[in-house]
Every structure is written in C-alpha cells, then in structure tokens.
Amino acid sequence: MAKEKTQFVCQECGYQAPRFLGRCPNCGKWNTFVEEVIAPATTVKTATSLSGGTVTKPEKLAAVSMQKEPRVKTQLGELNRVLGGGVVPGSLVLIGGDPGIGKSTLLLQVSGQLSQTGGTVLYVSGEESANQIKMRANRLGVASDNLYLYPETDMSRIRANINEMKPNYVVIDSVQTMSEPEITSAIGSVSQIRQVTAELMRIAKSQGVTIFVVGHVTKGGAIAGPKVLEHMVDTVLYFEGDLHHTYRILRAVKNRFGSTNELGIFEMQEDGLKEVKNPSEIFLEERLKDATGSAIVVSMEGTRPILVEIQALLTPSVFGNAQRTASGLDRNRVSLIMAVLEKRANLMLQNQDAYLKAAGGVKLDEPAIDLALAISIASSYRDKGTNPNECYVGEIGLTGEVRRVNRIEDRVKEASKLGFKRIYIPKNNLKDWTAPTDIEVIGVATLGEALHKILA
Ligand code: TYD
Ligand code: MG
User: How far apart are CA 120 and CA 165, in angstroms?
Assistant: First the structure.
C-alpha cells in the first residue's frame, strides 16, 4: 500500500508546509503545526456548488430575480441589531468566543425563541448530553415543542437527520467537536473544521436552513480556531467579555447582510443572558465624582452612542524612560495626544509615567475620543478635577486644532439623555444644526482654548 502523504498545517491560520516548523511564517505563532493526512482528491467533495448540485449557467444581473430577504427577529434586540436587523433565513452564522463565555447559553436561548415563532430547531451538541442541555434549558426557562436536542458528532448522521427532519434552524455546538468521516485528520484540526463548515454551508444554501455554528477561540496548539473559517461563512460574530465580569459584548466582524460596526451588550445572570439596553449607565456606574484624571467621552459604537469614562494617571518617572500604558485605548493615539499637549499646550510630560484606561472594559478607537483623552491627561497632570456633569467630544490635529467629528447630534442627545449638563464639541460642529436646549453646548477651536475653559 502506498504510504499516506502528510503535510503540516498551522492550526492558527491554516498555513501549510511540507515539514514541521516551530514558528509559522504566515501568522508568526509558535508551536502551532500539526501533521495532517492529505486527503486523496477523489474523496474531498467540492463544496462550492451553492445550488445543491444542479448545474447553473451565468445570468444577466438584470435577469436575476430578487426576493427581499425576510428577517426573523429574535426576542433579543441586541442580537438582531448585530445581525443587521434579524436572522436571515438560509445563512450560516459563526459565533466565536473563549470557552465558558456563554456561546451555548446564547444559542440555547435563541433556539427556544426561534422555535416559538413557528420554526423547528435542531440543536446538535458534540459537547453535552441531552440531559445536560435539558438541565440548562430548564434554568433558562426554555421550553418548546419544536426544539429537538441531538447529541452527535458524526457529520454524515447529522446530514441524514437534517435531510429527514428538514428543520428551519440548526445549531452546531461546536464545530471543533464535529467530524467528517471521510477526512482522516484529527477532530478539531484545520482540515476537519474546514470540511465540516463547507458541508454546513452547502446544506444551508441548498436547503434554505439557517445554521449557527459555535467555534471556540483556542490559545494556540492542537485545536484550530474560528479564524480559519471566517472566509467561508456569511456572518462572523465574536462573543467577548471578561470571565471576571458579567458583561458580554457581541461584535460582528464580518456580515454579508449588514454592518460590522454594531455591538450587542448582554449581562450573564443566574437565568441566562439578559440584554443591556442602556450601556452608558453601566459604563459610568462606578465613576468617582471628584477624581482627577477622569473625562467622559461620547463614543459611537456602530450606530449607537455610548458614554465611557477615560481615566489617566500621571506620576513622575523614577527611572530615565517614561512608561506609557493604555488599556482599551490605542497606545499610539495616547503618545500622539501627549506629544500635542507637550508642544501646543506647554505641558511637561516627558518625565511623567502615564497610565491610560477606558473604564468598563470597552475598546475605544475613533478619533472623536481625542479631546477627552487630552483632558484626562491634563487633569491628572495638573491635579485638577473635571466637572462631573460635563463630557467632551472632538478630534485633535497635530497643530492642536480641535477637528469636526461625525454624528454630533446623536452624541449630544445621548449626553443630555443621561443627565449631563454641558458638552464641549469642536467649534466647526456647531454649524448646520440647532443644539438642544436642555444641555449647554460649547464649541472649542483649539486644544489650548479647551484646556483654558475646562480646567481653568
Ligand atoms: P456556556 O454557554 O456553557 O459557555 P460556552 O458555550 O461559550 O463555552 O456558559 C458557561 C458559563 O455561563 C458558566 O460558567 C456558567 C455561566 N452561566 C450563568 O452564569 N448563568 C446561566 O444561566 C448559564 C446557563 C450559564
Ligand atoms: Mg458550550
């Protein structure tokens, strides 16, 4: 018998090499190569035919008939928004996240809701027994006649059951536990999870079934992560959060049916995930009213404005090199703002260690946070507190000018809704709209002017 041919595949990014490598030349990760058998070409089915095997011909664009995608809304408004307005029938959605973050919980809740709107749901689990899922469902208050549990890992049996049952929705929990019997590589390897996903895509498109696939994010090593599947599916959502906190953030990183800027915020409670409808309140909850180095910014997360506290702590450096650390903020942006403060506002920052933080574990990366960043740094440096009823929005240029930002009306409205009394915005943003009367809106043109007005 001919010797089986093998290759080494990086489990992080899918890069293939003929021999073992310690470090992947593609993604730079160490110890991620695993030997996989190259499947003979005849047994690997091409999964590209989305029409389910029938031969299609090219069509003129104008001749393609179009049905408007109906969206199925779940009861979780946060999820609907991240998906771009609801679940698109026949789509393949990948939900990635660290183990234990709540992916199974979210999908079981959604399964319960979808099965009550008239569709049948098949929940395939390769991780838990039907009994365990039932116990979880009881905790979550999920009960429905149209929800089927199916503990299985063999794709050929799963395929047969989908063909027979014809469910409207399928949940695959998780892709790393499923195996396609024709592929000899280990369960959870790049070859396996790619083949399983390609097969699920074919089922979704040919039968119009909506499929949710769970993918655990793995920390290097023998199991491949959802990264290597992103190009194959319609929508990729990541479920993030800190296992020490109860808040969870659902983020779209790819969406063929909507924007990728939206965030969904949930809280993990005893009886499952609850939506957080007003995230600004929780991000500001623990703020100290008279602290120095604190500034509130109204940041746009997708279409939604969120108020977040930026904190700065400056202390004189003990050793020659000044430290700069930033969490939830871009370090380069922090360095840039400090340089501008130094040059344009005469703050002596070069011998100061600076620690910056966006409170509440969010990540802020839009230019409109510049002004609040500068204010928090100057406030800590001068040991002068900011007014707790104020917030700040504006981009700062290298010459110290405060530049116009987008969506100013939404930002100001959100600040006034949360009870803020005054907001500083770029002067150029004052044109072309009428500011609301329940909040004082002050335009500033330069960083110097802003510091003078705010920290006087
Ligand atoms: P789970 O959905 O199993 O995570 P994943 O599928 O992403 O690995 O969530 C596991 C955690 O969630 C677990 O530590 C317990 C917690 N949890 C709650 O706090 N409340 C609940 O109602 C449920 C079902 C789980
Ligand atoms: Mg799970």
Answer: 9
pLDDT per residue as tens digits for the range 84-126: 989 999 999 999 998 889 999 999 999 999 998 878 999 999 9
Q: Which residues of the chain have pLDDT under 50?
A: 42-48
Q: 225 CA to middle of ligand 1, Å?
A: 20
CATH topology of domain 282-454: Ribosomal Protein S5; domain 2 (3.30.230)
Closest residue CA from atom 22 of ligand 1: 272
125 C-beta closer than 6 A to ligand 1: no
Q: Which atom of ligand 1 is nearest to the CA of 140?
A: 22
What is the CATH topology of the domain spanning 73-277? Rossmann fold (3.40.50)
Q: Which residues are annotated as a binding site for ATP?
A: 97-104
CB of 215 shorter than 6 A to ligand 1? no
Shortest CA distance to 198 belongs to which of 224, 232, 240?
232
Residue 51, pLDDT score = 54
